[in-house]
Amino acid sequence: MSETMNQNLDPDNLGFDPDQLRAKYLAERDKRLRADANEQYQEVTGDFSHYIDDPYIESVIEREPLTDVTDVVIIGGGFGGLITGARLREAGVKDIRIIEKGGDFGGTWYWNRYPGAACDIESYIYLPLCEELGFVPKEKYTHAPEILQHSRNIGNKYNLYEKACFQTEVTGLEWDESESLWIIRTNRNDAMKARYVVMSNGPLNRPKLPGIKGISDYKGHTFHTSRWDYDYTGGGPEGGLNKLADKRVAIIGTGATAVQCVPHLGAGAKELFVFQRTPSSIDVRNNRPTDPEWAASLKPGWQKERMENFNTLTSGGIVEEDLIQDGWTEIIRNLISMANFRGTDLTPEEAGRLMELADFQKMEQVRARAEELVNDPDTAEALKPWYRQFCKRPCFHDEYLPTFNRDNVHLIDTQGKGVEAITEKGVVANGVEYEVDCIIFATGFEVGTDYTRRSGYDLTGRDGVKLSEKWSNGVRTFHGLHTHGFPNLFIISNAQSAFTANFPHAMDEQAKHITYILNYCQNSNVKTVEASKEAEDAWVDEIISLSRLNESYQASCTPGYYNNEGKPNPLSAQNSAYGKGPTPFFRLIAKWREEGTLQGLNLSA
Ligand code: NDP
C-alpha cells in the first residue's frame, strides 16, 4: 500500500464546513443554469463550416469512387477504430477498411494539435497497445506529436493503411437485405459495400461554437482550437507562437483544452484576454520523463494491469495499491485513508458521505493552489472552482495558473454569465468591448446532441427504418454495441456502455467484445447478427433504472457536457452510460462472452 494511503485522515477534522461548501456550490451552479442548455451552442454548419476545414492536409487525395465489398468497414481512424482494427487483425480478420475524414489516423490527436496538447491521463495507460508495439511513451503525460505518431505506428503494425480511405466522409449507410451487406456512401461518391460495419465516430468529434450574438460580424481572424492555425500564430505544438508578438488575442473558454494552450498564448501574444465563464479545477501535473530503468523492468501484462488499477480507483473501487499515484487517483486515496480512520466496514451511505468529504478536501486544495500561484488576489479568487471535482473534466497543469501573473495576460471573468456579444472588432463581456486581432474558440465539442447529427450521417436499417427515427426518443441498444433492426453493425461509444476517464480503455474492451462476436460469426458461417428486440428493451430499462444512481450528483453539478448543460431530461437517463460503472460493465460483457451462448443476439445462417 502506498504511503499516502496510510495517512488515515480524520473526516471530522478537515478544516472546512461541509454545509457552507454545499450551499456555495449550489449558488455557483444556479448562476450558470440557463433554459437553453445545449441549445445555447452554434452548430458548425453552413456559414460556420469553414471552422472544420482540415488545415493539416498537404494535398487532396484524388481517387475513383469505390463500389467494392469489404468484410469489415470501420468508420473513424481514431483510437477506437485503430484498436478495433488491431484486435480484429489479431483474430485473423484479413479484409478491413478504415474510413477516415482526416488525412491520416489519429482521430482526436489528428485534429487537436494546439500548442501544449498532451494527454491528461497517464500516457502508460492512455496510449493503447503499448505492449503490443513494444513501446513506452517518453513522458508520464506525453505530448500530442508522440500520440499522433503512436496512432500511425498502430496503423503500420496492423497493416491498417492497406485499404484505408482518408479524406473521406461517410454521408449515409443503407442495409441491403437481399445481399445482407451495408452500402456505405461518402462525399467521394463511393457506394462501397461491407459485411460488417463498426462505427467509431468518436465521443468528441464535432467542434461547437457558442451561439453568441454577433458571432458572424467579427472581421478579425478566428479559429477553433481543434483546427489550430499555425500559419497565423507561428510556432508549433511545442509553442513558440512568434507571429502573435504584435497581436491582441482573445480565447473564449477555459476547459481542458484552453488550460493546455493558454500558457503558450500568454508567452507568444502581445496581449491575451482569457474569457472565463466557469473556472476549471487545476491540480498538480508533475510531468516527468519516463525512467528507462523502470520501463525496462515492466513485466508482460503491465499495461492491462495498470489500466485496470486506474479504472477501479477512479470509479470508486478499492484496490490494495495505487499504481498511478497522480491527481486522478488522489481523491480515492483520501477516501481510503478516511475509511481507515473510521476502522469499520462502511455502509453505502457512510461511504457516500466520506466520498463527498474527500472531494471537498481535494477541491479546497485546488482552490488554495490558485491563491498560492496567482499573485493578484481578485484574479486568484476568480480562478477558484466551486463544484465537485468530477462535475467537469478535472485539469492538471503547472503553468496555467502562473500565466495570469504575466502583465500581458488578462483574465476576463464573467461570473458565470459568459461572453455577451461579438462585434466587428472584438468581444464584449461585463459590458466592456475588448478589441482584438484574433478570437480563438476553445469552446469544446458537441456531446448532448443527436448521434446522427454528431456523426454527420444517418443509417437506414431493415425495412427502411432510419437510426435517427429509431433513436428520436433516446438511444436504444443492447450493451451499447448493437441496435435492433441494424444487423451486422457495431457501435463504439459511451452511450449505454462504459464511461471511463480513460476513454481508450473502454474502447479496447468494446473492441475485444466486437472481435469475439465477429470471429464467432465468421467461423460459424453466420450471415447476420443482430440484437433481439427483447434483449435491447431489457438493456434500455436497466440503463434507465441504474442512471438514477447518479441523478442527484449530476443535478448538483455546475452545468457542462457531463450533465447535459445542467438540464437533465428523460433522454439523459436513457442515453447515459452503464450506471454501475465501467469495471462492472467490463465484467458483465466478459462473463457474457464466457457463457458463449451469444444470448440476446439473433443469428441467421
Ligand atoms: P469544454 O467543453 O470542456 O470547454 C468549453 C469551454 O467553453 C468551457 O470553459 C465553457 O464554459 C466555455 N464556454 C462555452 N460557451 C461560452 C460562452 N458563451 N462564453 C464563455 N465561455 C464559454 O471543451 P474542451 O475542448 O476544453 O474540452 C473538451 C473535452 O476534451 C475535455 O472534457 C476532455 O474530455 C477532452 N480533452 C482532453 C484533453 C487531454 O486528454 N489532454 C485535453 C483537452 C480536452 P463553461 O464551463 O461555463 O460551460
Cofactors, ions, other ligands? NADPH dihydro-nicotinamide-adenine-dinucleotide phosphate
Mean pLDDT: 93
Strand % is 5-15%
In CATH terms, what is the fold-level topology of the largest domain?
A: FAD/NAD(P)-binding domain
CATH fourth-tier homologous superfamily of the largest domain: FAD/NAD(P)-binding domain
**Global shape:** globular
Largest sheet: 7 strands, mixed
Description:
By secondary structure, this protein is an alpha/beta fold. The chain has two domains: 137 residues, FAD/NAD(P)-binding domain, CATH 3.50.50.60; 295 residues, FAD/NAD(P)-binding domain (3-Layer(bba) Sandwich), CATH 3.50.50.60. It has 20 helices and 21 strands. Strands 2, 3, 4, 5, 6, 18 and 19 form a seven-stranded mixed β-sheet that branches. A five-stranded parallel β-sheet has the order 8-17-9-10-13, with helices on one face. Strands 14-15-16 form a three-stranded antiparallel β-sheet, with no helix packed on it. Strand 14 and strand 15 form a beta hairpin. Helix 2 packs parallel to helix 6, helix 2 packs parallel to helix 17 and helix 17 packs parallel to helix 20. The structure holds NADPH dihydro-nicotinamide-adenine-dinucleotide phosphate.
Question: What would a concise description of this structure say?
Answer:
Helix content is 35%, strand content 15%. The protein has 605 residues and is of the alpha/beta class.
List the helices and strands and how they pair.
Layout: H1 18-32, E1 41-42, E2 69-75, H2 79-90, E3 96-99, H3 108-111, H4 123-126, H5 130-133, H6 144-157, E4 170-176, E5 181-186, E6 191-199, E7 209-210, E8 221-224, H7 230-233, E9 248-252, H8 256-268, E10 271-276, E11 282-283, H9 292-297, H10 302-314, H11 327-342, H12 348-373, H13 377-382, E12 395-396, H14 400-403, E13 409-413, E14 421-422, E15 426-429, E16 432-435, E17 438-441, H15 451-455, E18 458-460, H16 467-470, E19 489-491, H17 503-523, E20 528-531, H18 533-556, H19 570-574, H20 582-595, E21 601-604
Parallel strand pairs: 2-3, 2-6, 4-18, 6-19, 8-17, 9-10, 9-17, 10-13, 11-12
Antiparallel strand pairs: 1-7, 4-5, 5-6, 14-15, 15-16, 20-21
Helix pairs in contact: 2-6, 2-17, 11-12, 17-20
The structure holds NADPH dihydro-nicotinamide-adenine-dinucleotide phosphate.
NADPH dihydro-nicotinamide-adenine-dinucleotide phosphate binds next to helix 8.
